[in-house]
Amino acid sequence: MASMDVPADMPKRAQTAQAAAVRATPAPVLTWVTLALMTTASVASLRAAPTMAVYGLACVFLYLVPAIVFLLPTALVSAELASGWNGGVYRWVSEGLSKPLGFLAVWCQFAMTIFYYPSLLAFVASTIAYVIDPSLASNGLYTAIVIMVLYWTGVWVSSRGTKALAGLSSWGLIIGTLVPGTILVVLGIVFLGQGNPSAAPMTADHLLPQWTGLASLVLIVNNFLSYSGMEMNAVHVSSLKDPAKEYPKSMFLAMGLVLLIFILPALAISWVVPADQTSLTAGVMQAFNAFFSYFHIGWMTPIAAVMLVAASLGGMLTWLAGPSKGLLEISRSEGYLPPYLQKLNKYGIQQNILVTQGLVTTVIALMYALIPNVSSVYWIFSTITTQVYLIVYLLMFAAAVRLRKTQPDHPRGYRVPALRLICTVGLLSSLAALAIGFVPPSQFGGSSVLSYVLFIGGGLVVLGLLIPYAFLKFRKPGWRSAEAAAGEGSAS
């Protein structure tokens, strides 16, 4: 796709012609199945399985409850909004609430990835280390190097365009999540079928988790993070042949795949790895290693690691494309970001936004090299990610209710039954997760509660509120793209 940057010294007629040519350029067409795979790749992975595997059979309950009160409302509401309004979460919140709040929503969707990438790539680093040298998993310098190399490689791939990205992220999901997840579950079933005892009890008495106080709920917050992202690829809805019908189908397929990917591998890990020996970062590889050793196919352990890495990188590529594209589109039309960040490369990709974000990601990656406890950094970054992203959902649910009231006759390809009830459940769930996120997990028992709360709260306020407020406060009329300004002038 041609760049949408229009030189300031180009004659007005030529500017209009170039802008029209860009608008006439056909968008790449995605099938609804491909979009479902992209969505699943951005939401689901085996990375979260060890966290819930420690609960054994109770992990089913701990996954289903957030799915009912958060994943289901998110999928249903985003399906209705995307089938009626193109442009993703910014357009939805702008139409339902206000443009500044729409910018806040798309900013938080984008900003959460600043902490998401380091935590995701730290998992990749631990997976690779498990094959090379397990001691490297706790080496901060090694982790930092892996994060920086993989992130900048992802930026290069993303800058090549959406078509290449869609193929890589979809195949990353299939090769790195669906296939190894299926292998893990099948080997687990065979393992139990041969009469081997499960490491975790599988009786009805263990369907519900044991209550150990409020701190035990903190792990559930990561389930909200695991389920977040269902709405992100709505920015690609215009690339579907029939968005009104195909996007809801894509959402429901993705939702089913997400549940299967989360629940079944977590159970398989609990069958073979005792809870007190499960690593929250390398637990998946522990399970693969145990199964492969039992079945005398240990040579498959490195292959499984490569497959897991492929899935994580596919998910990262999807996240690189979605939120930054939404931020770009609103910034070009409303002038929320400086012109430098609005520039596109020859493929029509927001490369300057990705590079600027990469500089921040690099700084965060260096923290892994400077802070001794890699697990603590991983957990704190994951929590800040969740907190910032929950703002998006609070705004999205509120906007959906107001749009149904203010624009009841607006064409929608799909309408959520009992929308107000669904949105209320989603709002309350998001608020509960936001509050629980400030409770230190049991792993931080020896640390200062106040410092933990201040760090999480500070990250939420600065990243999720102060920075977008500064952009809104100091934006200039000249920051709007020439195409947007010309369109407004011709309309008037």
Question: How would you explain this protein's 3D organization?
Answer:
The chain has 492 residues and is mostly helical. The chain has a single domain (52-481), classed as Amino acid/polyamine transporter I, CATH 1.20.1740.10. Helix content is 70%, strand content 0%. It is built from 18 helices and no strands. It has helices spanning 12-24, 32-43, 49-53, 59-84, 89-96, 99-132, 140-158, 162-193, 218-227, 243-272, 283-294, 301-334, 339-342, 351-370, 374-406, 419-436, 449-474, 482-491. It is globular, with a radius of gyration of 23 Å.
How would you summarize the topology of this molecule?
Elements: H1 12-24, H2 32-43, H3 49-53, H4 59-84, H5 89-96, H6 99-132, H7 140-158, H8 162-193, H9 218-227, H10 243-272, H11 283-294, H12 301-334, H13 339-342, H14 351-370, H15 374-406, H16 419-436, H17 449-474, H18 482-491
Order of helices and strands: HHHHHHHHHHHHHHHHHH
Instruction: Sum up the overall morphology in one term.
Output: globular
What's the CATH architecture name?
Answer: Up-down Bundle
Looking at CATH, the homologous superfamily is Amino acid/polyamine transporter I
* Domains, number: 1
Number of helices, counting only DSSP H or I runs of 4 residues or more: 18
Q: What is the CA–CA distance across the termini?
A: 29 Å
Radius of gyration: 23 Å
Number of strands: 0
* Helicity, as a percent range: over 70%
Uncertain ranges: 1-26
Largest sheet: none
Mean pLDDT over the residues: 77
CATH C-level name? Mainly Alpha
**Pairing-aware structural class of the strands and helices?**
mainly alpha
Q: Which topology does CATH recognise?
A: Amino acid/polyamine transporter I
Q: Bin the strand percentage.
A: under 5%
